Amino acid sequence: MSSEFLGPSNPLNESCRVTLKWLALLAIHFRVELSDLEMQIYCGALEKCDPQALEISFQKCLHECEFLPKLKDIHDRMPETTSYFEPEPPMSTAAEDKAMWAHLMEENKEWIKNHPPDWENKRWTAEDGWLPVEESWRREAARESSKRRSDKPWHAPIKGPNIREGSGSNH
After folding, report:
1. Terminal-residue alpha carbon distance, the chain
2. Alpha carbons 27 and 95: distance in angstroms, whole number
3. Could you list the residue range(s) of the whole structural domain that residue 33 is in?
4. Span 91-103, pLDDT tens digits
């Protein structure tokens, strides 16, 4: 490989080292010669890949490919990687789970009918918590009525080029 490819501004990362090692092995195995430009294309395309995943992928290519693998062959054989932030796939609901749920609901139908949820016909407020609806509204109305209000109605100050100070109307 020429010094242009390994210039001081482009040091080899671990993925590129793995790629070059395997390209050399695969070139011997498949009896082909790779030019510097071809190696540069492989390294550039695979430089952001995980080195361990590259090792696995190249090993699979050695055993499965009939010719020198293309980039697609290498990417197709790469193991799936999951990161911390990827959502988990949704759980599949098996037929036996559905059958079990139906059985439990049928078994407990009477109990469920006779025991309504605790929040039914209740209302939540930060001041009182869960209370029956009527009691909750009564307490809220009492709190609102006990607030001190001014006798004068509030309005925004009236100002403008055609408004005289102190006049209540615009005559």
Report:
1. 93
2. 51
3. 14-76
4. 767 778 888 888 8
